[in-house]
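Exam prep: given the inputs below (a chain plus zinc ion), describe the expected output before reading on.
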Amino acid sequence: MRLAKAIAKHNRLYHAEDAPEITDQEYDALVKRNAELEAAFPHLVRSDSPSQDVGHAVAASPLSKVTHAVRMMSLDNAFSAEEVHEWVARVRRFLALHEKAPLGFTAEDKIDGLSCSLRYENGALVRAATRGDGQVGEDVTANVAHVADIPQQLAGSVPDVFEVRGEIYMAKEDFAALNAAQQKGGGKLFANPRNAAAGSLRQKDASVTAARPLKFWAHGWGAASEVPGATQEEVVRRIEEWGLPVSPQFRRVDDAEGLLAHYETIAAARPDLPYEIDGVVYKVDRLDYQQRLGAVGKAPRWALAHKFPAERAETTLESIDIQVGRTGKLTPVGRLAPVLVGGVTVTNVTLHNRDEIARLGVRPGDRVVVQRAGDVIPQVVENLTREEKRPPYRFPDHCPECGSEAVAAEGEVDVRCTGGLICPAQRTERLKHFVSRGALDIDGLGEKTIDQFFALGWLESPADIFRLKQRRADILALEGWKDKSVENLLASIEARRAPDAARLLFGLGIRHVGAVTARDLMKHFHELPALRKAAEKARAGDGDAAAELTAIDGIGSAVVEALGDFFHEEHNRDVWDDILSEVSPPRYEVETKDSAVAGKTVVFTGKLETMSRDEAKAQAERLGAKASGSVSAKTDLVVAGPGAGSKIKKAAELGIETIDEAAWAAIVNSAG
Ligand code: ZN
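Solution:
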């Protein structure tokens, strides 16, 4: 399900990388849509569905991992009073409560922070951990020692074991001061207080955390040897007595009306609160009820987050600027007449892509409604003057950075610069790709060296790499370079004067031409000039040339189109000629190893446990076999892992030999 994948991606950006790309409200809408689909089609719920997941798995991080004794839950969301009433009615039904039976709740503002679990043993803080994926978080014990709100020792009589749960956050004022200081010092700017809090806490070096003004408040608990109270309110008040802050807006109310009244009070106070909040959290007050209600998937039935609507304002779209990303993607950015949205002055909005501009029908000069939620990049949600008779905005068909043609591949919304190697916005990235392991694999020419040489004007194009030997004295004059290291660098460059043609082709970074595609192409054409000729002919409308290309196994029309676009650019042809004046790839021939499967067609199916699908295919290729995606009469061998289904059945019907992964490994090993 594409939706689940999108949610997973944004989840990762938000939780693991502290770099959200969409607003919290957009994210919530995605999750809600997913939940609706799953409710309608329960058989389609995937094991990796976001409904089965809380937050994101802990990213590769220098911090060590902590398994939570009691899972850290997340909350279901509501966006309207109606949904709140529905939730209360559901709770009543579940508990089989009479309509008049009392049912109390707690309500408190939902701070936009980083969830954290603090484990106290005999009143002493022994471990602090982030939420992570809800089951495994990161150990931030050393870091929270620098959060003044978190006592190392609790006051009064405390259960033997008690895990306090709450939010680490940064106040609005402290956030603004931190970003101002970061800007001055050339450091990274944080998108919002939540990201600033997360980035400040999740530091290997706790002294960084110490320099950041983090705060904490408690709103619940995890593992506990004893729960000191019969209601949510009683326990929260006990936690407060022990010396941990709780929300000043925490209240107990009697019914749904009470919840909604408190929501309105908090919403009205929101602009003046010293911290960012994004809603109000409701919980069933009685703990025996909470116990009975339990949880569905990741979320308890006894709690609900009532989110605030996004904040909006009206302004004029003054111009549309095009930014070119590292991969050549053209991103339109709207420049606005400055406008205050939810207390923040907004001057830029993302317009995403060409289709989004067309959908909104926006042109410079239009009056637009801008929305900002969760403090991420604001966006245009409505065009108030689209009916006015003015010509539509014309999305550029040339790159503003280098003047090359900019095109969208068929079926794609993103417009990309075809300048590739000559586009300054893309050049260093392309150079790094050119020398990377899968491409020319030049040792000693790392990313930093490329950035440095590029800044010095020594690497205008990939061919310049082969002219670096003329700069031996210049390189030696740079800090950190010695005779020996310059020698090594130049030697590893010289070692690539006769590169593998497929690697060279892959290194050019032509869209859709990955390592495997490059090999497929070269197996057929053997020489780079022959490939270029066919691609240029196909682009010029020669049906035979196009047919020759698409007849190659693994080559589709997207590749043919991308090749045509590449060679259509004069700049690219110059770069190509320049490279081929420096290097001479030998005729490309696939050396067929003497193996049991040479010349055969192999299909991999099911879950492979010791290697990725890509690695398996590469192994097959090295053994002179062809890896195919589907079982047919042409298949010679099927390698099946656990969970393989219809393909095994089909293989059996066709009488094709089927082996497991271990048997495949034996074939690979015997071929050396
Ligand atoms: Zn460009």
